[in-house]
């Protein structure tokens, strides 16, 4: 199956089974799902989370419980702005009890501070939003725009991430499309610019993955049309840092 077909199946099946959560419809998004808080609690049990002091978490709705948990646990949180239009925002030291409010898409820029690329601290753990993931290879696919992949490669290029920095995703069990008991039972196709995951947490299980592919560590500039590149502020900043050449 192609990536688009797998995405469509996940969106349809989460909706059909009543496992899709607000905001709806989940089609075209990193889908929120019933049990996202339980998946976050499983992440909290992982040693790579406990040891991490600086965590990057995507801005997607199903990751909201994780973003709040990161602040509640006294860690530093980096959030990319949606569609990478304005770079990254750092949050830390939020007043106790306001972590969920502070990490919502409505408020995170008010509670946090936008940072230049060179200001970003080395990141210990990445939590990525996902539409579908393979537990046998670690391959994940997002909603198709490639922002998570670009963020990883960008931060690797700057030395803020390493190729072996742990990557976790939190999903519904239906999104683990090659699990033995899964109705779809397919492995995901992979492209060199795709990031893979090391751990999958769902409401019911935690899986340590043996990644089958290397992480992307360079921006594939050939995939970016000039109009789209102009809308991606961090990539423009990277080009300026490199003297105008990708």
From TrEMBL:
GO terms for cellular component: cytoplasm. SUPFAM superfamilies: NagB/RpiA/CoA transferase-like (SSF100950). Pfam families: 5-FTHF_cyc-lig. InterPro entries: FTHF_cligase (IPR002698), FTHF_cligase-like_sf (IPR024185), NagB/RpiA_transferase-like (IPR037171). This is 5-formyltetrahydrofolate cyclo-ligase. It comes from Symbiobacterium thermophilum.
